[in-house]
């Protein structure tokens, strides 16, 4: 009997104890829990680029306590469109609610460009602790296509070629690499919708190897992504005239052989030519004009031999007339060099932008200053016989993206986007 009584007394107490304990076990974490659920999104990388279908897997757990485990996971696309999430059938983690099943975002249903996904996981605690992840991603189902006009590309030694790079979408930057050099390409402004075009001006060295050369085109789109494609250009031989054995006076021979002076001058000249490669706008208009009157005494590229033993191509066009004959700017631009050079005499270099420069050498008088803007046909100086010459003449030079080319070609070709240039 005694035993029974004590058991009767004990049993309710035990039950109260169990209930309170159980309640405490469940409710204190419920009340006190302040930890966020753990949230991870797999299959999608923040700032990533996607096409087709994206398999997204939301990994959400709340490992703190059974009573405060995961309650709800929601996801929204582009801030407002809820994504229907189904619960995973089985989930081994004992302390959490079932997180959502992996799901698919079909990017074909989305516009091209930036999108966002926001995932929110809430736990069951009184605080409703939340964790959220927001990713932005880029949809690009249209592969950026690049092609060239003309196609195939043919260039010739000592000449300039314009290659138009057509892209399937608007791009922010187009670069090219050819003959081991980098070239900037500049957008072509068109009146009609003819696509997105950038122009590459290629200057071909007089001694460039003939045959097939790769042109790497690197395009950067508006989302700052780059696409590279390699094209090929065929370099053809130019039959430059051979001729002239030039006898320099012993004094001039000495001048020609003074390599340190030549190096110094060349450094000044190339520094000026580089200015054009940094000038994005096209400063010239239409065709170039021949900058002076007179007889054409030595064409561009002519292979000459000097009594110093030097054999080389003539990298300019010589026009001979009397000292004092007016010299005009071949086209509009900015003066980047005015100097008295060792070999080239009194020299003016004009930057026409987009990698194009012209030079005017052996002048007797210079009428412009560095930084001056000149118009096509504006008088810049007078013909002379300064520097290493055998008589008064203008040595008219042209440099396109770091390579000396025939300036005369520019007097009947304008390299704009027209049927002549694209070779239709
Ligand atoms: Zn010359």
Describe the fold and architecture.
This protein has 424 residues and is mainly beta. The protein folds into three domains: 38-139, Immunoglobulin-like, CATH 2.60.40; 146-238, Immunoglobulin-like (Sandwich), CATH 2.60.40.10; 242-411, Glucose Permease (Domain IIA) (Distorted Sandwich), CATH 2.70.70. Helices cover 15% and strands 42% of the residues. The chain has four helices and 30 strands. The chain has helices at residues 2-32, 250-257, 259-277, 419-422; strands at residues 38-42, 48-50, 53-61, 70-77, 81-82, 103-106, 113-123, 130-139, 146-149, 153-156, 160-167, 171-178, 181-187, 196-203, 211-221, 226-236, 242-246, 295-298, 303-306, 311-313, 317-320, 326-328, 333-341, 345-353, 356-363, 365-366, 373-374, 379-382, 394-400, 403-405. The protein has an eight-stranded mixed sheet, with no helix packed on it. The site of zinc ion (ZN) has 5 residues, from loops.
Describe the protein's topology.
Elements: H1 2-32, E1 38-42, E2 48-50, E3 53-61, E4 70-77, E5 81-82, E6 103-106, E7 113-123, E8 130-139, E9 146-149, E10 153-156, E11 160-167, E12 171-178, E13 181-187, E14 196-203, E15 211-221, E16 226-236, E17 242-246, H2 250-257, H3 259-277, E18 295-298, E19 303-306, E20 311-313, E21 317-320, E22 326-328, E23 333-341, E24 345-353, E25 356-363, E26 365-366, E27 373-374, E28 379-382, E29 394-400, E30 403-405, H4 419-422
Summed up:
Helices cover 15% and strands 42% of the residues. The protein is mainly β and 424 residues long.
């Amino acid at each position: 009997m005694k035993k029974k009584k004590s058991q009767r007394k004990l049993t309710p107490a035990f039950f109260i104890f169990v209930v309170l304990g159980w309640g405490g076990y469940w409710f204190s974490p419920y009340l006190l829990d302040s930890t966020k659920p753990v949230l991870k999104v797999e299959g999608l990388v923040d700032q990533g680029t996607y096409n087709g279908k994206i398999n997204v897997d939301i990994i959400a757990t709340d490992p703190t306590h059974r009573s405060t485990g995961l309650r709800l996971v929601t996801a929204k696309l582009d801030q407002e469109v809820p994504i229907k999430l189904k619960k995973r059938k089985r989930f081994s983690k004992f302390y959490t609610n079932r997180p959502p099943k992996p799901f698919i975002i079909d990017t074909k249903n989305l516009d091209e460009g930036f999108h966002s996904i926001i995932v929110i996981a809430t736990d069951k605690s009184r605080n409703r602790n939340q964790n959220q992840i927001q990713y932005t991603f880029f949809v690009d189902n249209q592969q950026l296509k690049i092609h060239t006009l003309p196609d195939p590309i043919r260039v010739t030694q000592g000449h300039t070629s314009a290659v138009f790079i057509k892209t399937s979408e608007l791009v922010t930057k187009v670069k090219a690499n050819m003959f081991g050099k980098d070239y900037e390409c500049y957008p072509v402004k068109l009146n009609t919708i003819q696509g997105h075009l950038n122009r590459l001006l290629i200057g071909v060295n007089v001694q460039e190897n003939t045959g097939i050369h790769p042109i790497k085109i690197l395009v950067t789109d508006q989302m700052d992504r780059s696409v590279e494609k390699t094209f090929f250009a065929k370099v053809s031989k130019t039959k430059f005239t051979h001729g002239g054995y030039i006898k320099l006076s012993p004094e001039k021979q000495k001048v020609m052989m003074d390599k340190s002076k030549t190096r110094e001058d060349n450094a000044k000249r190339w520094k000026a030519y580089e200015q054009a490669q940094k000038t994005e706008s096209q400063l010239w208009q239409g065709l170039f004009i021949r900058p002076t009157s007179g007889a054409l005494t030595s064409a561009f590229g002519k292979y000459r031999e000097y009594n110093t033993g030097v054999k080389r191509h003539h990298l300019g066009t010589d026009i001979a007339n009397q000292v004092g004959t007016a010299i005009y700017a071949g086209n509009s631009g900015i003066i980047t060099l005015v100097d008295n050079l060792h070999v080239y005499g009194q020299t003016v270099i004009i930057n026409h932008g987009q990698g194009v420069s012209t030079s005017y050498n052996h002048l007797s008088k210079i009428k412009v200053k560095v930084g001056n803007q000149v118009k096509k046909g504006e008088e810049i100086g007078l013909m002379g016989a300064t520097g290493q010459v055998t008589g008064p003449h203008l040595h008219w030079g042209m440099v396109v993206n770091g390579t000396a080319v025939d300036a005369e070609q520019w007097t009947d070709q304008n390299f704009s986007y027209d049927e002549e240039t694209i070779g239709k």
